[in-house]
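Suppose a colleague, Dr. K., hands you the sequence of a protein chain of 399 amino acids and asks what its three-dimensional shape might be. Before reaching for any lab equipment, you can write down a predicted structure in token form. Begin with the sequence itself:
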Amino acid sequence: MPTHASTRNLRIPELLILALGTFTHGVDRHLLTGLMPKVSADLHVSASTFGVSTAVFAAVFAVASPIVAALTETWERRLLLGVSMLAFLAGILFQVTAMQLSTLLIGSALIGLSGTIYLPTAYSSAGVHSTSATRARSLAFILGGASLALVAGVPLAIWVGQHWGWRSSLWILGGFALAATLPLPALSPLPVPPRQQGRWQILFDRRVMSVIGITVAVMTTSFTTFTYLATILHATSKLVPLAMFMLGVGGVAGAVVAPLLVNWRGAPVATLVAVCGATLALIAFQIVHGTSFGILVPLFAIGTFNAVLVIAQQHRLLALVPETAAPFAIGLDGSAVYLGGALGAGIGGAVLGVIGVNGIVPASIFIGLLAITLAALVRPEKSLPVTTDVANALALLSE
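The predicted structure, expressed as tokens, is then:
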């Protein structure tokens, strides 16, 4: 197992600066989802068309994330973070002025590009510049920004969008992005990891790819429902922001619990607990989602378990790869999140178009059961890296 010799631990103010960016990206990830009926009606497209179109772009970023991480691996980290946030601001300008779906998706492309740069850089910087004892806590700080986005940022922006139009909510998101950009020069220089010649070998390491596969499965489970949450809840003005709020409160709780669980039982067990818990919470959501406020407890649980999953999975990846490969590995995990989001949006859109809204949550539950099976059976920490297997095979052939 590789060690991660850190030059220094990131200070809490620096972690908070990085968390401002994940807060902003967290608001973006759920904002248009919460306002989907209004946005699709204004742009004259159906909710299923809007969801599937979003899925196509998310799939593109699933491919782009590790490539961007590889191309920018020698960039100074603060510069990289700054460039990503400028791309985010440019994307907001496209979205807020969009009169048709294609223009909105161009803005989504720029914001997605920003996410493929910012999120792996923030998570890998926090993870690498930590000791093994503090790594889960540092990752929780960064994830906490995304969780707080659901607690405060998303409900506020959705409420504004419901009362003053969805474009007004995008201006608020632009303000969050500006607030996340301005403090970046205050970060101390973050050492750039040396170029890793064999970084692409990670793609052939079945241990790493099995962890990535679990992330894809769980994100598909979640986003099959989350992408169409406003449609499932019939977009009542009070319930949608409150639902997002409960997801966020759960995420904050998960960010607190995850380091304790990882340090107590290990990241693989934390992953399995998260997958089982999120799927059971979806089953509860299916049972009570017709009772309005009865959905709040299951949504809190889903937010909690998803936060635990993110921290546990990144902790596993950082323990499996060399320090020099950490940005690339976290980039792959970002790809897994985007790919899961794309698959979830696509599956949910197909179910919505063919079966109707009542089929969406059952489809999520079915995928969740597959994810539980995968998480229970696949334990990459017990396997040798593929490079070791190849070396052993060559040694046997030479005898």
